[in-house]
Task: structure prediction
Amino acid sequence: MWRDTLAVAGKDLRIEMRSRVLLNQVVPFALLVLVLFAFALGPRSGPMVQASAGLFWVTLLFAAVLGVQRSSALETGEGTRDGLRMSGLDPAGVFLGKTAALCVQLVFLEVLLTAGVVLLYGAHIRSIGPLVVACLAGTAGLAAVGTIYGMLSSGLRVRETLLPFLLLPVVAPVVLAGTRAWQVALGTGVGGGAVPYLELLAIFAAVYLALGVVIYGPLLEAS
Result:
């Protein structure tokens, strides 16, 4: 399984490096959303600093939808899905590989968005630990859910419009917990620690990673 995971992750990342969809489409879209939020909040720095944690996670979620659509589109070509079934790859390895590749892309995007939040909104990182843990756990959860629902919607003609409706309600806990953890890291929260929210992110990621390992094979066969 782990060998297949590395093979699939490497394949997806090589395709991304050659196509540069992340750099040419997803990153500009995410940065544009941050800029538009800054315009909407006005010139005063106070509201932007207070809202920076939530705007980071909302922007990441919108960009993640594009990344999931791109990841699932790699296997929607004619005969591609049949070739994947006949390749002998472990379905769990395929799921983990695609999830890992999506995680790498989202982490790269998060680094850029963090810099954008600091530069555009004037946010100050007061505690790096909760910020990093929240990003890693939240990324794993988003990527796992995205890979599952990307496969569920990949065989449908309306997959581009259906995927957000399937994905956004499910990942609401990631956005809420990630925002609260970031508020602690940025010092903009109302009090309390980040541990409960980090635990929620970790549990969410673990549940959907385990679920994907179990059900990705049947989903692949049914698609």
